[in-house]
């Protein structure tokens, strides 16, 4: 790791990510695989699941859309009903990778980039562990990669899962304001082009995968309380609660 000072501030220049360092050939080195097993063991809920079929909740939304509100609602509902569920979130996994804290003391954004690829791999490993054990899980992702989600949904169907998609949305200008406020509060910033890309691609993904899953709900999270825009219930009924807001959501992709 090279440390550079500029105007009194330490800036890191990292030539390799943690995946670059520990993924040799076509796999992680044994010592690193052991670290992954440790992280997965910490995150997975191994309580016996009596829910049949097992449920996979796929949570998505553009940057700064308020996914944490919905993830908390889902997790609280499962806990209230004493049903085990595993929460899979790359951002949470990043915090558990040893090198993250070391780099974070110099620059948090650099730390996130440094461990990003490896955290994604661990999330995928954790998900496969859940699927193999028929465990309920909530996967918290952006949902901007259509092919990734098409493949995932096909895989879940082959393994007998009930698939629920939950997407949150706010107007792009509101997302940018929230991202700026978060930067002022935490020092973490998301590039404008990343925010715009996620808000452009999520509607494209949702439009395709909504017909592939058992249930879905799109929420408007502009206000304090999330409001349903459109939903597909477990019995297959499609309910449009706000056509104007739905049109706004899809128009982002144009």
TrEMBL record:
Record's catalysed reaction(s): UDP-N-acetyl-alpha-D-glucosamine + ATP = UDP-N-acetyl-alpha-D-glucosamine 3'-phosphate + ADP + H(+)
Superkingdom as given in the UniProt entry: Bacteria
Zeta toxin domain: residues covered: 48-214
EC class of the enzyme, as a word: transferase
UniProt KW keywords: ATP-binding, Nucleotide-binding
Annotated EC: 2.7.1.176
Keyword ATP-binding: yes
UniProt cross-references to InterPro entries, sorted A to Z: NADKc-like, P-loop_NTPase, Zeta_toxin_domain
Keyword Nucleotide-binding set for record: yes
MF (Gene Ontology): ATP binding; kinase activity
UniProt cross-references to Pfam families, sorted A to Z: Zeta_toxin
PANTHER family in alphabetical order: CALMODULIN CALCIUM-DEPENDENT NAD KINASE (PTHR31153:SF1)
Family assignment from sequence similarity: Belongs to the zeta toxin family.
Record's protein name: UDP-N-acetylglucosamine kinase
Originating species: Bacillus thuringiensis
């Amino acid at each position: 790791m090279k440390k550079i000072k500029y105007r009194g501030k330490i800036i890191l220049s990292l030539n390799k990510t943690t995946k670059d360092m520990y993924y040799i050939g076509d796999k992680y080195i044994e010592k690193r695989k052991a670290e992954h097993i440790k992280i997965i063991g910490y995150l997975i809920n191994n309580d016996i699941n009596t829910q049949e079929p097992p449920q996979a909740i796929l949570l998505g939304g553009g940057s700064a859309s308020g996914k944490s509100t919905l993830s908390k609602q889902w997790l609280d509902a499962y806990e209230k009903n004493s049903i085990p569920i595993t929460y899979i979130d790359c951002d949470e996994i990043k915090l558990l990778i040893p090198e993250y804290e070391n780099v974070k003391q110099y620059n948090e954004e650099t730390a996130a980039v440094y461990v990003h690829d490896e955290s994604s791999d661990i999330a995928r490993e954790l998900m496969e562990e859940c699927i193999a054990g028929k465990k309920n899980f909530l996967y918290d992702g952006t949902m901007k990669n259509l092919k990734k989600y098409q493949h995932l949904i096909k895989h879940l169907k082959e393994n007998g899962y009930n698939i629920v998609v939950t997407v949150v949305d706010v107007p792009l200008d509101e997302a940018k304001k929230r991202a700026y406020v978060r930067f002022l509060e935490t020092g973490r910033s998301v590039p404008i082009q990343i925010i715009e890309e996620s808000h452009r691609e999520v509607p494209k993904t949702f439009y395709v995968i909504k017909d592939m899953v058992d249930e879905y709900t799109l929420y408007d999270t502009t206000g304090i309380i999330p409001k349903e825009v459109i939903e597909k219930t477990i019995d297959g009924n499609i309910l449009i609660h706000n056509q104007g807001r739905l049109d706004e959501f899809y128009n982002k992709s144009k």
